[in-house]
Write a structure and sequence with these properties.
This protein is of the alpha/beta class. It has 14 helices and 7 strands.
Length: 315
């Protein structure tokens, strides 16, 4: 039986083989043991670059462990990452002994703690930088799978402030790049991704970075691969309650971004909302529904903010 069959995961295999590796391969091994979450998303060229060895050294590293090639080695890293993501340091809401009230109380309590944890480690400087960056000419928002609703929500409200906001559809890789064809210097891309991280979102962020656009990552930690191509990182706690991604903290962070941007551009927001209401009236839409009532409240609140700002300036 070889080492690949004896050891249940690639990390234990690396530890066993460490003493017999060359100097360059040892450097790669040490980096992987400390940063395997990132390495699962790195090409051989990028791995060699971040470790400080040649691409050929990185390409030969899997063979030193007994793998047939780099793709098999990378798949082993992905497997250990998935195992960590799905480990049950979370609630088993499928437990048949839990009552409905227990599930509701536990899940909501966990969600509240995630927001609290996010707030405790909140980086104000990065948040302010992100708000400034979004004054860019065009904004591209990328979110795949469970993060797609976050991207749509963000884009919907950002359009109250900016004309050129595009929520990039990630269903097809070719279409993704087609939608970002015109991104460049002076624009900003916002990548939203949480475990399990999206390779398509990462590739879109790499593309934006290569085109010299500003890149903002909304993700869960400094260990996220989404940070590789971003110039500004915003972190929000995200875990799972059994089979469901908990994205309440990321949503709260996005809400805070929207409010900050709207307050910074309050005159434009008021003008845009009033235009929308005028369009609705002109097209004889008679439904006085909650959305219009909400818009009026928003306008009134923003007008108060504008009045208060004017008073402060006079003082």
């Amino acid at each position: 039986m070889n080492d690949l069959e004896q050891h249940t995961d690639i990390l234990s295999l690396i530890r066993v083989r460490m003493s017999g590796l060359s100097r360059g391969h040892k450097r790669i091994a040490e980096y992987i043991l400390a940063n395997y979450e990132k390495c699962a998303f790195l090409t051989a060229a990028k791995l060699g670059e971040v470790v400080g060895v040649s691409e050929s050294t990185a390409v030969r590293f899997p063979a030193a462990l007994g793998f047939s090639g780099y793709p098999e080695f990378q798949k082993a890293l992905e497997d250990i990452l998935q195992e960590k993501i799905h480990s049950f340091d979370r609630i088993d809401v499928l437990n048949s002994h839990m009552t409905t009230n227990m599930v509701v109380n536990n899940v909501m309590s966990m969600d509240a703690r995630k927001i609290e944890h996010t707030l405790k480690s909140f980086d104000t400087a990065s948040f302010d930088m992100a708000v400034e960056d979004m004054a860019a000419e065009s904004v591209y928002i990328i979110g795949a799978r469970s993060c797609e609703p976050l991207a749509e929500f963000f884009g919907y409200y950002l359009r109250l402030v900016k004309k050129n906001v595009q929520v990039v559809k990630t269903g097809n890789t070719n279409e993704l790049f087609e939608q970002m064809m015109y991104i460049g210097e002076g624009d900003v891309a916002i990548g939203i991704s949480f475990p399990r991280y999206s390779m398509r979102t990462l590739k879109a962020m790499e593309f934006a970075n290569n085109r010299k656009a500003r890149v903002i990552a909304i993700t869960d930690s400094v260990h996220s691969p989404m940070n590789m191509y971003s110039s500004c990182n915003l972190f929000a706690r995200s875990d799972m309650a059994s089979i469901v991604d908990s994205l309440v903290a990321p949503m709260s962070l996005i809400n805070a971004l929207i409010v900050s941007i709207c307050l910074k551009n309050s005159e434009q927001v008021v003008e845009n909302i009033e235009k929308i209401n005028t369009f609705v009236d002109n097209f004889e839409y008679s439904g006085n529904d909650e959305i219009n009532m909400l818009d009026e409240n928003v306008v009134n609140e923003l007008r108060k903010c504008m009045d208060n700002a004017a008073i402060d300036e006079e003082k």
